[in-house]
Amino acid sequence: MLQSPLEHQRAALPALDEAAPARWPSRPKAPDPLADKGGAGRDAFFDNAKYLAIVLVAVGHSWPLVLAGSRATEALYILVYVFHMPAFILISGYFSRSFDMRPEKMMRLVSSVAVPYVVFQTAYAVFFATTGDRDVAVRLLSPYFLMWFLMALFLWRLLTPLFRAITWPVQVSLLIAGAAAATPDISGQLSAQRVLQFLPFFVLGLRLRPEHFRLVQRWPVRWAALPVFALSAVFLYWAAPRTQLGWVYRNRSAQYMDQPWWLGVLTTYAMFVAALVLTAGFLAWVPRRRMWFTVLGAGTIGGYLLHGFAVKYASSAQWAETYHLGTPLGRIAVTLAAVALVTVLCTPPVRRALRVVAEPDLSWAFRGGADGSVSGTGSGKAEQPEAAEERDRVPAGAGARL
User: Fold this and answer.
1) How many domains, the chain?
2) pLDDT at res. 368
3) Alpha-carbon distance 243 to 209, whole Å?
4) How confident is the model at residue 134 (pLDDT cuts 50, 70, 90)?
5) Contact of 195 with 149, CB cutoff 8 Å
6) 84-107 pLDDT tens trace
7) How many CA atoms lie within 13 A of 265 on its CB side?
8) DSSP H or E stretch at residue 394
9) Rounded to an integer, what distance in angstroms lies between the CA atom of residue 183 and that of residue 198?
């Protein structure tokens, strides 16, 4: 984007008027509840949110191993799926606000999203062939398992300038999501249904500001979140046997689930509201100070991409049946194992080991240098904190930006 050469010049200071009346010094601003940094300029609140979101992702992926025979587990599974990816995606949108089509931004998009997608899409294809689940064909346009999020994030980022330019971005994205849920002919490639049905959460994230996160951190919101989650769990305990999981996966049209098209539209909007309420409740209880797990928020890309191998291997090896995990204690053990595994995979050593494929330096393939200055595209000055935060990876949700 071209900038005026006068934009970066500092305005001249006004002359000091010694005859001017003295004024009391202005009252210092109240501390920003989201300003506690987790190190290296990172925001502790968002690193905490990303880590906790990726824990929910891993737990949600592990519970199908032990869902059979437990209505309570099924209710909790649906509850987590209603909001855990929307929360991840909303945060991803928030950290994509400064994305545009400049070469340095495109380079980061390719290195942090496209390259990991190609590498791990191939790795999952080989893994599934090895375990006998699927053939070894590498289908780059049909994401395997959890790889749909990287595909969706890549497409959403490319659409970011458009949704930042139009007048009613959230409303337009909701219309698109409702239309997708009512359209049975949408191709299964590119995870198109998920890309379109989850789109409103990403677009809403583009519109959020720090004050919105401060709003949900107020104590009245925190206390209100507790009965909301409790009542949601009770309702889903009743509704679980009657619920088609396609509604929470958001990967099917209404007609595919033998429902009328209008129900798909209404359910999409009802799920959007439910997901926002639960996401607000989740964010309300995210710690805003530095915790022992804050540093793990920077490594959620590893937790997201790698935990799927363990989950799918446990499924193909039938560990639930072999080790009799379909009991209350077994379900607790599976949950704790998922938490421990994804925690290890988010640690700095794993992130460093993955950097060659998850965060490679592609400055050699783009015009300009690794410092982000690209000839003919900008001033080369240091990025503002908002733009620098965009480089934080969240899959999902949470990592690549989750």
Assistant:
1) 1
2) 62
3) 35
4) low
5) no
6) 999 999 999 999 999 999 999 999
7) 8
8) strand 394-395
9) 15
Residue 295 token pair: 């540093």
Q: Which of 131-135, 266-270, 319-323 has the lowest mean pLDDT?
A: 131-135
Read off the tokens for 352. 């460093």
Query: Quick check: is 22 in a domain?
Result: no
Q: What are the residues facing 395 on neighbouring strands?
A: 398
Does 155 reside within a domain?
A: yes
In the prediction, which pLDDT does 380 show? 33
Q: Quote the pLDDT of residue 386.
A: 39
Looking at residue 246, what DSSP letter applies?
H
Mean pLDDT, the chain, rounded, equals: 84
Q: Is 42 helix (H, G, I), strand (E, B) or coil?
A: strand
Closest CA to 63 of 331, 328, 312: 331
**CA-closest candidate to residue 54, choices 326, 305, 279:** 305
Determine, yes or no, domain membership for 315: yes
Determine the 3-state secondary structure of 76 from DSSP.
helix
The pTM score is 0.83
Domain that holds residue 358: 39-367+393-399
Give the separation between CA 339 and CA 259, rounded to whole angstroms: 36
Kindly state whether residue 382 falls inside one of the protein's structural domains: no
CA distance 194 to 173: 13
Residue 48 confidence class, pLDDT cut points 50, 70, 90: very high
Non-local (6+) Cβ contacts of 70 within 8 A are: 326, 328, 331
By C-alpha distance, which of 13, 19, 78, 58 is closest to 402? 58
